[in-house]
Write a structure and sequence with these properties.
two-stranded antiparallel ribbon; mainly alpha; binds zinc ion; 3 helices; about 100 residues; YggX-like
């Protein structure tokens, strides 16, 4: 179990001194890691991004595959430079078929 602190720290993602998320947003190792190492701002940024991804790809969240896909994207978002994230072309909103 990661130990969560509320003290300001340097975020592993954006490198800013900020408040940590302070809890595991997911009940997984990745969730623990993100909760301990990333800041609240990055988490709200991800929530926005997640919404876009869900809408863009029409993800059905009752389907476990959708969750796996989102977790992969989340990992890329927090621990990659973002270049491998799903490209969201706003002009094709709703026209992508799986
Ligand atoms: Zn951050």
């Amino acid at each position: 179990m990661a130990i969560f602190s509320k003290d300001k720290f340097t975020c592993a993602r954006c490198g800013q001194k900020n408040e940590p998320i302070g809890f595991a947003p997911l009940p997984t190792d990745l969730g623990q890691k993100i909760g301990a190492e990333c800041c609240k701002n990055c988490w709200s940024e991800w929530l926005e991004k997640q919404k876009q991804i869900i809408n863009h790809f029409g993800l059905d969240l009752s389907n476990p595959d959708s969750h796996d896909y989102l977790f992969d994207q989340m990992k890329l978002f927090f621990y990659d430079d973002g270049t491998n994230l799903a490209a969201i072309d706003e002009t094709k909103e709703g026209t992508i078929e799986w």
